Amino acid sequence: MAKVEIAPLRSWDDFYPGSERFARPDTRDLAKWNNRVVSNLLYYQTNYLVLAIIVFLVVGFLNPVSMFTGAAVVASVFIGSVWAGENKAVIKTFKNENPALFVFLVMVVSYFLMSLFGGVMVFLLGIKLPLILIFVHASLRLRNMKNKLENKMESAGLKKSPMGIILEALGQQEENFNQIQDFLESKLKE
């Protein structure tokens, strides 16, 4: 098993070089879009972490109690869902068969619990805003050769990163999308 390594902080020119390295994803090919998002999440993970921390700190400074409550609820639901996904056969099967729906349900449960404790708007701004910004960047950013090489090393197990561990816990590995795409292509040829 490979040692967990923190990905390097990518330069601003690599992270946001201009419109020539961005393009709308093909919404008709969900497997390709998912592959782009997962690849960018793995490649730019340190940049995304810095972005999330900056937004989190700005919103947290404006309303610290609600931000702490929101972070505690989300962390508890995430840890609980990962534990249940590994230790409960029914949930593990559901997570493997419906990874995107599983992540969506984790988000819905987090939102519901936050509404019980109040401070939903602070939660949405402090935690969801960075996630939305990250998803938009990961969806629009085209991959380069370095990105593809880094991701192949991660999927082959030669390298392990924190984002790779999180994506694996949520069932969002790149090879899952490649298998889905291969399956769909074989069915279309029949």
From TrEMBL:
Compartment(s) of residence: Cell membrane; Cytoplasm, Cytoskeleton; Endoplasmic reticulum membrane; Membrane
Transmembrane regions listed in the UniProt entry: 41-62, 68-85, 97-114, 120-140
GO cellular component terms, semicolon-separated: cytoskeleton; endoplasmic reticulum membrane; plasma membrane
GO biological process: negative regulation of transport
Main location: membrane
Keyword terms: Acetylation, Cell membrane, Cytoplasm, Cytoskeleton, Endoplasmic reticulum, Membrane, Transmembrane, Transmembrane helix
Pfam family, one: PRA1
InterPro entries xrefs: MFS_trans_sf, Prenylated_rab_accept_PRA1
Membrane topology reported for the UniProt record: Multi-pass membrane protein
Family (UniProt): Belongs to the PRA1 family.
Name the UniProt record assigns to this protein: PRA1 family protein
Organism field: Sinocyclocheilus grahami
Gene that produces this protein: LOC107599422
